[in-house]
Amino acid sequence: MSTGRFTPEALPGGSQTAARRDGPLPRALVAVVSNLVEQYSGLSLGGVHGRGLEQGIRRRIQATGTAGIREYLALLQSHQTDELQRLIEAVTNPETTFFRNRAHFRSLREVVLPSLAVTDAPVCLWSAGCSTGEEPYSLAIACLDAGLTHGGRPVSILATDISRLALDAARRGEYSERRLQHLPPSLRARYFERRGERWRVRDEVRALVTFLRHNLIEPDLPAPAGTVDVLFCQNVLIYFRPELVGRIAARLATALRDGGYLYPGFSETAWYRVPTLESVRLGDCFLYRKVPAAADREAPAVEPEPRPPIRRPDSAALPRAVTLPSPPAPRAGDALAEAERAVAAEPLSSEAWERLGLLCRQARRTGEAESAFRRLLYLRPDSPLAHFHLGALFRETGRAAEARREYAKAERLLRALPPGAPLGGVTAGLLLDACRRALSQTGE
Ligand SMILES: C[S@@+](CC[C@H](N)C(=O)[O-])C[C@H]1O[C@@H](n2cnc3c(N)ncnc32)[C@H](O)[C@@H]1O
After folding, report:
1. What's the DSSP call for residue 109?
2. Which residues are bridge partners to 262 per DSSP?
3. Is the CB of residue 131 below 6 angstroms from any atom belonging to ligand 1?
4. In terms of CB atoms within 10 Å, which of 269, 273, 398, 443 comes out highest?
């Protein structure tokens, strides 16, 4: 069985020689494996992701020395090994980077962290789906930079992922030069030290971060309810079915304290429809804020799922429940009015139309959202983002054929861009992935 060292660079695309050598695997058997993966992790790997699943299966067949997919399936179903866990590790996408979305970190620096600094209460941030550690370390660096640890205030970053391999790499906290290329030189100098060819996160940063294995579809949370000030759950739920996303978002909301913030990934903005979360805008980004407890009681119960409970981490490592004053944040309605004023003042600003479209979409003002995104398209006919937003809007309003058309146009435009090209806070590669997933899920 392969237990090779996993580094952030060793993406699951790794050794695919075997995958390329043979013909296609029987679809019916791949579908059975896909179901097992989904039941275990929530990852829906049909459609375009099916190829990644097939490659993962082939690599695991090779690593386990099984004779083929039938024997491998029997191994998976035998429950006598943790092979399903290993398969998940082989097929999940660990792509991540330090300070991935600049707008998110700006809003943390300028609004959220200063608001937490006004009391001495402990602070807890949670990176759910932390992959190889870049996201939680970025959060820790942001806290240190904001002076949040001054005066001995406890600051903890809880970092969880389903993949033990990714967590092992995260705990090592060593990254190649390439992984740090987007990091401002001042942060690199202050928070990293050279280790031969690699850069190691300094102890001061590491001391704030606790890594734990946690599967987001498990019913238990790795932090007590109402204790998390800031929760990043980015680019994980994009691989889950929408009905599951709603349930998980509702559960994540219970971990947040009142007024705490949930940062979804860029392409997940406007996905969560959870009564305990209100959408707010902070600077250039759209996020969710936990509404106060009264509304909490009205929220429908989160559906229980037949999963075994996970072991809770050492409670000493977790923060006490805290009640902090909510920072001032524009509510969705205020933000909408502001966005309307912005397009009136600058009718040729594509950013202003995009923002208005997103806010209208969140407020379920579908017609206005469509007009705003069409205006964006008029101003920037080659913008994959405009097609993507329109596709998402059509998809959630049941206009599947139109949604497919827009996603397909976005996909075409994105294919012509380098995967790392920045696009409004995400990379072209990430958006391409989201388009392909949406295309497979809106399939005819
Ligand atoms: C693309 S990475 C995202 C990393 C980081 N959040 C970011 O946005 O840069 C997705 C991560 O989600 C993890 N993941 C997938 N399914 C999960 C689950 N059911 N529970 C917890 N983590 C999961 C994967 O192992 C992977 O490390």
Report:
1. I
2. 231, 288
3. yes
4. 269
